[in-house]
Amino acid sequence: MLRPFDFLMIGAMLAAATVTYQIKHDTDNKAAEVRRLEAEIKLEKDTIELLRADEALLAQPSRLERLVTTYAAELQLVPTEPTQLARPMELPMLKDQLPIPEGEEGTESVSAPSDPIKDLITTGSVDR
Hints:
Structural class: mainly alpha
């Protein structure tokens, strides 16, 4: 005859078996999901590699030159002029062409003022 304690032990064993089965089932599902995601990542990496190879093939200078010659009349391509990228006034000055700030004429250099604490740039935000 079964005692009440035996019923309690059987119930605990069934609960433990159910939880164990559920954990194993969830783990199997997660492992399958991880494998699926890894396969998807590999496919994406392979696709990117293939696209980079295609781009390198399409951008070969000899191929582009051949296309320019073939379609020259239709496209009317001309070389890029340097002024299309930047005008001379938009380029920065050379160091030797920089104006010397007031009070620093002579032997002192522009990069090393006589008073290192004095700031040569005035922003107007702080009174000095």
